[in-house]
């Protein structure tokens, strides 16, 4: 049975900061951020957006009534969840008006959560071919003002419908994965900002890639030449390029040109959003599919997922005929085009705004937030959401 991605949608908040201006404010050469890190714009979430609303807004644009009826499993990948007990997916299930006869869970393993969700969804569809599964990766990446990680922050969500006979991409049989207990990036429960051993995390990302790439080739019998493109988890857009470069000597000049050109296309959305952790790999896939008009049906795309701590996985998909007709290219173009720039001081103010943690009530002004689904306040330690 063919199982894979039937629909894919994306949401990022309506505010961003220009990386050139952030660099100047931090007394850093702008090229370090735009070339060395490879980021142009960083999405800034207003206080009225959290991982729940980002996820719900991403899914809202792609689901029709039939999907809402057929979805019987919601898998919410996140590493910036809002509750240590209740799944963020349950809020999203309600905000989207999904069929109550559904399972809903939250998956956590750093940026790998949505990939684990996709693999779980594959198994579910294999047993229940009529079902559809909603898999979401939604996060807000926070390292802190004036930290080395600051230039790699971001916010957004990718929502995917996984089904039998998918219209966008069939996921192939083979997959290679690798786990090792390391401390490259982590966020203790008491902290709203991540801790990171930056250089070590870069090294481990590449080491895990080499492990799963070698195992994938052994399992599948495929080689570099068999790939039209490889998409990477993108904490920042230079990172995936570093990993890609480690395998280019396995291909011809033509293979290298194709893979590097497609890599550049696959980083465009991420370059203008920043790291969205669980959704980053799928935002890169979306960027490739929506922006490379010449990518033919039948092409094989490799996907490298990396979640610090750490778990890595490499798997592949085949593009389906007329897949472009099932993308939401214009909606995503509009989303990017309608964003508003904030100054560095405005971004710093937004970054410092936090929700009460002492049980007090807070009512938020949602009129300035252009999103359909917003956080409207907090009362009795409960977050309140509205769908406008
Ligand atoms: N012009 C052009 N390039 C410049 C430059 C200039 N003026 N100045 C510096 N650069 C280049 C450097 O040469 C370097 O390039 P290479 O890596 O290719 O050598 C690049 O800019 C970055 O410079 P530094 O290494 O000095 O940067 P840094 O140490 O200040 O910070 C970082 C980089 C460690 C990635 C930091 O941003 C960080 O800690 N980020 C968060 C962690 C992270 O994203 N890790 C990635 C792997 S972990 C993962 O993938 C999971 C996840 O999502 C977090």
From TrEMBL:
One GO BP annotation of this record: acetyl-CoA metabolic process
Keyword Protein biosynthesis listed: no
Recorded family membership: Belongs to the thiolase-like superfamily. HMG-CoA synthase family.
Ligand binding ((3S)-3-hydroxy-3-methylglutaryl-CoA): 143, 242, 275
Keywords for this protein: Acyltransferase, Transferase
Residue intervals of the Hydroxymethylglutaryl-coenzyme A synthase C-terminal domain: 173-248, 263-351
Family matches, as InterPro entries: HMG_CoA_synt_C_dom, HMG_CoA_synth_N, HMG_CoA_synthase_prok, Thiolase-like
Pfam families per the UniProt record, alphabetical: HMG_CoA_synt_C, HMG_CoA_synt_N
Coiled coil: none
EC category: transferase
Name this polypeptide is given: Hydroxymethylglutaryl-CoA synthase
SUPFAM superfamilies: Thiolase-like
CDD domains xrefs: init_cond_enzymes
EC number, as in UniProt: 2.3.3.10
One GO MF term attached to the UniProt entry: hydroxymethylglutaryl-CoA synthase activity
Active-site residues from the entry: 79 (proton donor/acceptor), 111 (acyl-thioester intermediate), 233 (proton donor/acceptor)
Record has Transferase as a keyword: yes
Hydroxymethylglutaryl-coenzyme A synthase N-terminal domain segment(s): 2-165
